[in-house]
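Morning run. Coffee first, then this:
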Amino acid sequence: MMSPPRQLTFRWPHSPSFAREDFLPAPSNLEALAAIELWPNWASRMLMLVGPEGAGKSHLGAIWARAAGAISLPGEALDEQSLEACTQASAVLIENADQASGSEALFFHLINAGLQNDVWLLLTCRTAPDAWGLGTPDLLSRLRLAPLVRLAAPDIELTEAVLFKLFSDRQLQVEPNVIAYIALRVERSLGAARELVAMLDNEALTQGRRITRTMASDALREIALKSESP
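And here it is:
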């Protein structure tokens, strides 16, 4: 029996919405959300959001950056222009700050310049500074002074809500029972959910039909096999 023809797929550009109304409050992120919304009445000019991938740090960072008029700098790509931008800004979001350890001297100068110029600083990271392996004691001491708010990995209810949002961002309608099936089996992280939703979006376009539980099962199995391969 011949398989149905597979259609040509076109990858239209899309991006997740980081609007405040699209943030999904849950017990795992309520403390961090409250801290973000407390700005500009923070106890310090610098705040750290710490949590695993998929906990909501980037979304909260985007909400704060919009409210504070902040520029956004990637921790893994800090350079002299980043330092100059920090001295001229009123607020700075440093995402993946734990990946800035490759340029500690520059990172230290950036933090100092920001605080000396009364710049608001929000840092997102997966772990607290003590786990970054920093070799600059003054940098570690400065980072330890910042209030730290932790986010936990999403629970099952939040995972379902995130999946609904990711499918909606791609204008995909998926049956609730299919989303519940996925939520029970997908890794509890936004990265894993995004990867799965992207695969299912592509597969639905290729097959020319809606996303089914069987399709989701196949995609989950493919992701599991990829993670097991060396």
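The chain has two domains: 26-150, 156-228. Good start to the day.
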